[in-house]
Amino acid sequence: MISLRNVSKTFGEGPRAVVALDDVSLEVARGEIFGVVGQSGAGKSTLIRTVNLLERPDSGTVIVDGVDLTAIGPGQLRLARQKIGMIFQHFNLLSSRTVRGNVEFALEVTGADRRERRRRADEILDLVGLTDKAESYSNQLSGGQKQRVGIARALAAEPTVLLSDEATSALDPETTRSILDLIRTINEQLGLTVLLITHEMDVVKAICDSAALLERGRIVEQGRLVELISRPGSRLAGELFPLGAVPPHVGSTIIDITFSGGSADRPVIAQLARTHGLDVSILGAIIETIGGNQAGRTRLELPGEPAVNAAAIADLRSQGLLVEVLGGAAA
Amino acid sequence: MNNDPSAPGFWPALLQVLLTGTGQTLYMVSVALAITLIVGLPLGIVLVGTERGGLFAAPFGSRGLGIAINRVLDFIVNLGRSIPFIIVMIAIIPFTRLIVGTFIGTTAAIVPLSIVAIPFFARMVEIALKEIDPGLTEAAESLGATRGQIVWKVFVPEALPSIVLGLATTITSIINFSAMVGVVAGGGLGDVAFRYGYQGFNTPYIVAVIIVIFVIVQIIASVAALIARRLLHETSSQVSLSTLISFPTSRTQQSI
User: Fold this and answer.
1) Measured distance CA(A215)–CA(B166) in Å, rounded
2) Shared-domain flag, residues A318 and A188
3) Overall number of domains in chain A
4) Residue A298 belongs to domain with CATH number
5) Do A139 and B160 touch (CB under 8 A)?
6) Residue A269 has what pLDDT?
7) Using CB atoms, which residue from B145, B149, B233 is nearest to A137?
8) Which residue among A4, A85, B195, B229 is least crowded, i.e. fewest CB within 10 A of its CB?
9) Chain A nearest-CA residue for B142
């Protein structure tokens, strides 16, 4: 649905030039919620702004819903943008207009007539739960309400894609939750493809189907979350299950076991202790619902001899579990 | 002329002169203001638009043209604002004659008044537009808005409270300048104060003119503040009248 191919963007020239995007390629499938995570300065904002060409890349192509946006003229680009909704960290609402007026603005752009604008605005305000605020101005709204207006405005022209530029970063945790729920709802109800950027892993955990990690303008890793968590050495998976640094270990082996799907329900550790006679210590554990599935990671300390530990690890792997050895003799 | 306030006919004569002068002033100021609005608003928009990263940064695809337009307009605006009004009035006499047919009289005085007020107001518009969050332009672009839609549906409405206040300041300065048009026989309240009051040794005329001008300026400032506050959709407790009035003035002084 969204396809960035070899997109590069540099700001400035000469020695002070800053490479914001370095040969970035990204595929977002129709109907999924795709999250791009990275620290500030990683190029996330530039990345999402190239998708509707608010930022024109120096090279590479941007294809949205089968149209190569980098190849079309300004008039066609405006039409294409009507089908790509965007929401912003600071909402960017018009203070001169009411809530309904802000939503209608999107429809004035598409050329809808007065009655149609009114009908559609009221319909979409109902969807985001702001019917009773239709006549309010943005300075009378809370942050969460403002973002709902932003979402309503972005959805008014019935886009196929929604871009979210740190949409929840200015909101408190509870409001963030409700906005994420709303995005998930419209994704499911309207079949909207969502590309969001965020610096918060929690956002990815909460609603994303797929994710990419952006670092210094480069995509380091990308994929569906369910695959990422069972990918050995995945940094995104590490971020999803933050078990912290590996503690010092003497004469023992430390392993991380990742459970997903059905394996999360089995008494793996108890079995391990019984079968191999190991006094297993649990150093840390996290269970999350990721992509609608239970998944978790447990860090264990195996106190046995290297050979015993190796046998135990082989046994775990034979059960289809992802086991990563972090320290100690295990081979 | 009757210089004795206690003499019969003194006050009716003063009232008559004052009414004529007020009428001339209001006529000059309102026509000059209309011209200022029509020319100054687009001028301010183009000034901001042709800046780096602006809406019209590269007209016809040429950034060089954008820079050129911006530099030329900026120069003209600065020039118009730095020359004292009385010199402008004399200097543009040929231009005034070309347009009005004469450079003498109240109607002819409208030309120099407009010439001076346009750059003044254009700067006010420029400042008001620069206050707008660039995110709003971005949001409008993301919706697929044209540049025209961005100007008329985002720029102007969003900057309107500041523009209205800038307009009030502009009116006040036009009234200020209009007091000098006696030089080209433009009449008006300034002329009343100068000829009847000063040259005629008749202090009550000067006092009367001061009172009338003060009242006019007060009314304009209050109405502008009221409109601006309405446009901001805030309750009176949130914004005080004085902050609204002083806000654009202080900004203007910085820009000079």
Assistant:
1) 47
2) no
3) 2
4) 3.30.70.260
5) no
6) 82
7) B233
8) B195
9) A81
